[in-house]
């Protein structure tokens, strides 16, 4: 979405677009084709979960500030179309006298049965899952979204880990990158608040990064490899 020549708001997203990248990666001689992992942030996170659910050979998936829902745009996969999770634009807020937009309340309640067709059926997948979220996420309620997906996975006996960080915002990035509390949203071309407190967000990024590395090593690496450079 809004990447290079791609439209910001396509009619639908075809998962095959990302699946082709997975197949390309599998063909590289440096890659163990049976040990592919995916990671995504925000909308990219629900695409990562979708890949792990529907695409063969994905052994581990990391969702950062994401959800177990298909958001914003219908997702087409293997003859199935998962509708976009509903939202209410009347709940979009402008912060004070600024032009900064707060989207934190505009997504529909995930407990409403009307939203259930938008769920990504990750519980059908044999992949391993790691969910990470910040409790000061001002873009959307990623903690609540993650809890909904984690509950479904645990009820189905799937391997899932979940960590939620107090004071952390939406953009959980690699450690030592500065906190970005607000920026221009490329697709909407408006200034969006992401949330996060300086110290808490920095600590969360350090911890989350180590958990991501450990998760991928556990589920993708050769157990005989001793070096973890």
How would you portray this structure in words?
Residues 13-221 form the BAAT/Acyl-CoA thioester hydrolase C-terminal domain. One of its GO terms (biological process) is fatty acid metabolic process. This is BAAT/Acyl-CoA thioester hydrolase C-terminal domain-containing protein. GO terms for molecular function: fatty acyl-CoA hydrolase activity. InterPro entries: AB_hydrolase_fold, BAAT_C. This protein has 229 residues and is α/β, with parallel strands linked by helices. The chain has one domain (13-220): Alpha/Beta hydrolase fold, catalytic domain (Rossmann fold), CATH 3.40.50.1820. Helix content is 26%, strand content 21%. It is built from 4 helices and 11 strands. It has helices spanning 16-26, 43-54, 142-155, 198-220; strands at residues 13-14, 36-41, 58-64, 75-77, 80-82, 93-94, 100-102, 128-134, 160-165, 182-185, 190-193. It has a 4-stranded parallel beta sheet with strand order 2-3-8-9, sandwiched between helices. Strands 6-7-11-10 form a 4-stranded mixed beta sheet, with no helix packed on it. The chain has a 3-stranded mixed beta sheet with strand order 1-4-5. The radius of gyration is 18 Å and the shape is globular. It starts with 12 loop residues before the first strand and ends in a 9-residue tail after the last helix.
């Amino acid at each position: 979405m809004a990447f290079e020549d791609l439209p910001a708001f396509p009619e639908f997203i075809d998962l095959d677009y990302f699946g082709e990248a997975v197949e390309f990666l599998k063909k590289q001689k440096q890659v163990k084709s049976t040990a592919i992992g995916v990671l995504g942030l925000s909308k990219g996170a629900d695409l990562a979960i979708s890949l792990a659910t529907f695409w063969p050979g994905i052994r581990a998936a990391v969702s950062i500030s994401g959800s177990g829902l298909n958001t914003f745009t219908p997702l087409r996969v293997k003859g199935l179309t998962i509708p976009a999770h509903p939202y209410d634009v009347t709940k979009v807020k402008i912060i004070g006298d600024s032009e900064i937009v707060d989207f934190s309340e505009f997504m529909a309640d995930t407990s409403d049965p009307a939203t259930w067709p938008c769920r990504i059926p990750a519980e059908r997948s044999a992949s391993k899952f790691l969910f990470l979220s910040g409790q000061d996420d001002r873009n959307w309620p990623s903690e609540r979204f993650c809890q909904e997906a984690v509950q479904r996975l645990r009820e189905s006996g799937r391997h899932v880990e979940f960590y939620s960080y107090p004071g952390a915002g939406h953009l959980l990035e690699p450690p030592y990158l500065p906190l970005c509390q607000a920026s221009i949203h490329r697709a909407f071309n408006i200034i969006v608040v992401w949330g996060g407190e300086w110290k808490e967000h920095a600590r969360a990024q350090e911890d989350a990064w180590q958990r991501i590395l450990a998760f991928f090593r556990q589920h993708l690496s050769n157990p005989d490899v001793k070096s973890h450079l």
